[in-house]
Amino acid sequence: MSETTYEAVIGVWDGHDAGAALLIDGRVVLALNEERLTGRKLEVGLPVRAIAAMRAAAGNRRIAWAPCTSDFAKTLTRVFPSMKESYYKLRRRLVPPGPLHGLKQRAKYRLTQWPTNGLLRAWARRSFASALAVPLADIFLVEHHEAHAASAAMWPAWDRDALIVTLDGIGDGESGSVWEWSESDSTLRKIISIPGSASLGLFFEHVTNELQMRPLEDEGKVMALASFAAETPAATNPFLAWFSLEADAQGLPVLRCSVPPTRMARAVASVIWCTPREQVCKLAQQTLQVLVPKFFSMLATATGRSAFGYAGGVASNIKVNRLIRHTPGIERLEVCPAMGDGGLALGSALAIWRKVTGRRPLPFTDFRLGTDHGDLGRDAEAIARAHAADFLRPADIATAAAERIAAGEIVMWAQGRMELGARALGARSIVARADSTTARDDLNLRLKRRVWFQPFCPTMLLSEAPTLLADYRGARDTNLHMTTGFATTPAGRAALAGAIGPDGSCRPQMVVEDATDPWYRLLAKVKVLTGTGAIISTSLNMHGKPMSDTADGVVEAWLESGVQHLVLGSALLTKKPSPATSRP
Prior knowledge:
With 584 residues, the protein is of the alpha+beta class. Helices cover 37% and strands 19% of the residues. The protein contains 21 helices and 21 strands.
């Protein structure tokens, strides 16, 4: 049987934020991160529940399996799974560091620098064939940055050839890469490999860790806290002095770092020792804001390309992405919404579909790719009885939610298939009035129990963007997935007061008109009631816990939170006031 007879591809990632993704006939039909099924944030290890869901959805089709990454460090954790679990608990601050913590940390950063090779790839294929109980011939291994690149290149519909950039921590010995994407034949060709020794992702990870935050999880807090520090001249930034960015003979960028990864922690700690925390964050953020846009600018100049795709952990930095978007020569920037390692399974599946069938995967824009459970609220009446809550099934759930939001109340919103990636895009959201700083503070400090300085994001009707956003330039800036930052107008600062940072910036989701989508109808009704089609939208979870794919998980989060209202599919559940929950 030839490779072209494959009818489905399942991508698998078993590292940080493990998950799986399924393509059938070139269409992404399901993609899930394991955390949304186990309830353990940023789950690690073979995603057995997600894989089971993919297999069930694939039915009797012949499947090509697309696992990702085979470097030596990853191989070690597959041979000794306890190493992966131990690091997970330590990274998430669930256990105290032991006496050998420093030694283990240096070993980790040394081993992850080693690239993959033929022996490691062969072992990885056999290991996955055994773990998945499938023939070895059906295993097609994908390298780490190839998967990131595919995740950035293959979901958009391009009107021209593009460059695809990946900037990450480390994987298969690389910290980044650049690829040429040909839209005519849907192929990726690598033109730049960035070594792990020059990793911007590892640098930011070290800053996060040395500030006593959780690496691979709290980098967004570093970015947020930077907004509260004074401006610092780039010439006096010690972090920036570690990196160099020069052009090769073809004009392509070459990134280097003078501080080895094994010494980075100590070097970062020495800066932190004599620098206020907010200023450290500012220096780290400035380092990315100087280097990454310059890297893109050099690429645009050297190649003449004006369209770019972007993925990898560094691509989650929305303030850097805003600067890239405004870089001369760049006309289109598409950031994969599942830009971090949680998107590797999707990228692997997309890449292998193209390889085994010779056909381009079908482009798509809707990243609500979780399990289709039907109406999440079909059992809502029984749930209300079990928890002594009020139950309502209104004629239009969007209208009922909008009325409560307009009245200043906070609502949990769970509709349909959940999002892939970290952003709340209308399937699992907590929503409130966008102009309410009271709602913002309530959400941060009392309901979600997050740090005070972390801003929320607005979701708005696309038609509101020209009025609310100062640097919105039309279709080229349409941001459907909260992947880039924007400045606000004076009107926007007032209308979005609860969803902007201290510098007036925000990370908006723009929603196109679609009367069949409850998310659009919610915003349209909010506009009728308040005058502005915008809301605060944050992920439906408690801080430190993941969003849930299932109605049971959503209800659990609602009961744990202080939020009164839950929209669950077609139903509205409301907690009855009690002395413990009532507020003056």
